Each structure stands twice: as structure tokens, then as C-alpha cells.
Amino acid sequence: MPSSYLSSSHKNPSRKSCEQTIKKILTREFEEYGENHHFKQASDFMIYFESLHPASPGLTKQVQRAVNALDLPRDENGYFMINKTVEEYKAEQELSHLLQASGLVNLSDCTPILIHAEPWKQDHIIHLIKSAPELQQLYVTLAKADNGVLLYTKKPEELLSFFSEFLKIDAVN
Prior knowledge:
The chain is mainly α. The protein contains seven helices and three strands. A three-stranded antiparallel β-sheet has the order 1-3-2.
């Protein structure tokens, strides 16, 4: 056999090739199980790589370089995640932390009411509504909208009545 044939069969895969293989392994793991429960570190991939290439310190270093280059996020148990970037995972964790410290309100049983107003009036209208003690129990939330101030209420008749009587605003249907 030519010596070039022997040396190429013992050649380690490139880092890029290792990265692609690692991605394939993790993608298959995710598709099959919905998450990764087997791969936490570069050495966990070595069984696969050693089945294709002779074991060597060079192969181990190449796989370690590939894992480092991929810069994969890890879940709370330390397993690699293939379906998210590090940035996406950090954003999810931050959102999760903020939501745990907050609360969610389902607005599906609320009625939206829009006070049509020019943009330069909206902040002042919001300030006045928030300052009026009579209104505090009449709305769940309010926000600026493109064409006015949007209120969500569980008491639409009372809120519309308040606006109609005291502020001389007619509710437009």
C-alpha cells in the first residue's frame, strides 16, 4: 500500500468536520428525545469519533476545539443545547426570571376601550387617568396606542359611563 493511503486513514478530521458531526449528533438527539440528555462535554462525543478514527490525543484536542468553537449554550443541568444560540438562551433565562418575579394577567375577559387622542395628548391623558381615584378600580391596564390611549376593563359600562358623564365624552361604537 502506498504510504499516502496509510497516512490519510490515520488523519484526524478537521475542526469544521468535527463541528458538523457534533451538530448532527445533537440535532438527532433533539429530534429523537426533544432535548439532550447525553452530551455535557467534549469527551462525551469521543465514543462516536473513535468509532471512525483511531484514538489519539490529536483527535481529542480536535473534538475539544470543535466543541469550544460551537459555543453552545448549556441547559440548567449542563447539557449542550443545539436548538438555541447562547444569546437566545440568555434572553429566555432573563425573561423567565422576570416573569417569575412578575405575574401574568389574562385579558381575554376584558373589554378594550380606546380614547382617540393625538400623540402629544396621550401621556397627559394617561397621567390624569392614573391620578383619578375613581378610575383605579375601573381598568385593568392602559397603554399608549398609535391613535390614542387603550384601556382594558372588566367594567366597560361603568368606565364608559364615567367618561360620558364627567368628561363629556360620548362613547363611539
